[in-house]
Amino acid sequence: MNDDNWTTLQSAGKVPPPSPEVLAHAAQRVEQAATRNPRRTVGRRVLVPALAATATAAVIGVVALQQSNTPTALPVAPSTTPSVSTYPPSRPLENQDKSPLCVASYPKELQKRGFGFDGTVLSAVQIPRTAYYWAVTFQVHEWYRPGRSPQQVTVQMLGGPNGQVQLEDQVGYEIGDRLLISGASVDSRTGKALKYPIGWACGFSRTYDVPTADTWRKVFSK
Amino acid sequence: MDDWFAAQVERNGPDIHAYLTRRTTDGVADDLLGDVWVAAYGGRSGFDPDIGTPRAWLFGVARHVLHGYYRKHRLRSTMARVIGIDRPTDETAAVDARLDAAALAPQLREGLRSLPAAERELLLLVAWENLTPTEAAQVLGIPAGTARSRLHRARQRMDERLSGSAQVVDETTRQEADR
């Protein structure tokens, strides 16, 4: 490479310097880590094998549950129908509903989703070998699409219940929460039916409230 | 945090941040910088001044953190694509986006893209991060001699590619002049 090309390449890599706040924030993180765990290297020798053993046991348990292949095999929470008659305003389960990364916008493209229902979370199990996906089983109160479906359904969803959330932008849900879920029942890349439907992010999966449920009913009936 | 480590953070912060910025999008580098310091602080006993410089060691930690980020990100993106979210899934895609944005000469851009990944990474560590070939070798965990020969080969490939393109351009110009 001649000098001109080398210089051009170097200039293509130029980036603005970070703000002092960014540098300070990063330095603060290591300060906190140092204060929180000053003897970390000693502790890790004991902790790592213990954590590894716990993780292995957990994975074996989850795999066993998954291999049984039926939603009823998933741990089922006590049947909890919300006793309150009013619900707080519906909100998306994650903060990405306005993200430019979303390929469809809610509610404009709700009507295009392959399925939609109102249901209560019975159980949630992390899907093995994925960092963020959970098999979530619902007691369905009403199917908006398709019209006739089973009373219980297991849906793959981004993120687990609160306390087991893995995404930084996840609002989350709890076992027993009443949710409105819509998404895909067909893999858009292959056109094949999915074993478990996928609850979409980007606002298409959200907490339940009566006005939003009414809207969904109308939208899906069109 | 001890004085030595605090000095490294202060001295190398902007360069490590620049390295992360060039290989990610959407302000991810701001968060990853903190991850790099935490990881480096946790592993500082592994730094051996006889083997290399603190700067190269920190770039090595940053590279490790970056790979971890993309590994995690790929898992997320595989399913995210299905559920309606799309993002770059590796640092090559982020670097490509940067090269596009920089409106680099097409021949240079294509030349870089055609390099084997290991040569390209090495070339960019030297060109963009101003690391010496020996420091870049330390970052990549390869012998210095291997890095030097790999770098030489990368520059040679780029030369061939660019001179090939130049010949095509010259030929086109000549043909147009003949008309």
Protein described:
Chain A: Keywords: Membrane, Transmembrane, Transmembrane helix. Chain A: The chain crosses the membrane at residues 46-65. Chain A: Residues 75-88 have a biased composition (Low complexity). The complex is a heterodimer of chains A (222) and B (179). In chain A, strands 1, 2, 3, 4, 5 and 6 form a 6-stranded antiparallel sheet that branches. Chain A has 2 domains: 17-67, no CATH class; 71-221, OB fold (Dihydrolipoamide Acetyltransferase, E2P) (Beta Barrel). By secondary structure, chain A is an alpha+beta fold. In chain A, a hairpin with a 6-residue loop joins strand 1 and strand 2. Chain A is elongated, with a radius of gyration of 23 Å. Chain A is built from 4 helices and 6 strands; from the N terminus they run H-H-H-E-E-E-E-E-E-H. In chain A, 28% of the residues are buried. Chain B is mostly helical. Chain B has 2 domains: 1-103, Orthogonal Bundle (Rna Polymerase Sigma Factor, Chain: A), CATH 1.10.1740; 105-179, Winged helix-like DNA-binding domain superfamily/Winged helix DNA-binding domain (Arc Repressor Mutant, subunit A), CATH 1.10.10. Helix content of chain B is 79%, strand content 0%. Chain B contains 8 helices and no strands. In chain B, helix 2 (28-42) crosses helix 3 and helix 6 packs across helix 8 (144-178). The relative contact order of chain B is 0.10. Chains A and B meet through helix 1 and helix 2 of A and helix 1, helix 2, helix 3, helix 6 and helix 8 of B.
Task: Tell me the layout of helices and strands.
The complex is a heterodimer of chains A (222) and B (179).
Chain A: H1 3-12, H2 20-36, H3 40-67, E1 115-126, E2 133-145, E3 152-158, E4 178-186, E5 193-199, E6 205-207, H4 210-221
Antiparallel strand pairs in A: 1-2, 1-4, 2-3, 4-5, 4-6
Chain B: H1 3-22, H2 28-42, H3 54-83, H4 91-101, H5 106-114, H6 117-129, H7 133-140, H8 144-178
Helix pairs in contact in B: 1-2, 1-3, 2-3, 3-7, 5-8, 6-8, 7-8
What is the averaged pLDDT score of chain A? 72
Coarse shape of chain B: globular
Order of helices and strands of chain B: HHHHHHHH
Q: Based on CA inertia axes, which overall geometry of chain A fits?
A: elongated
Strand % of chain A is 15-25%
User: Helix coverage percent of residues of chain A?
Assistant: 25-40%
Tally of separate helices of chain A: 4
Uncertain segments of chain B: 166-170
- The H/E string of chain A reads HHHEEEEEEH
Biggest sheet layout of chain B: none
Number of domains of chain B: 2
> Given this structure, which CATH class of the largest domain in chain A is correct?
Mainly Beta
Number of strands of chain A: 6
Domain RNA polymerase sigma-70 region (chain B): 9-74
Family (chain B): Belongs to the sigma-70 factor family. ECF subfamily.
Protein name (chain B): Sigma-70 family RNA polymerase sigma factor
Keywords (chain B): Sigma factor, Transcription, Transcription regulation
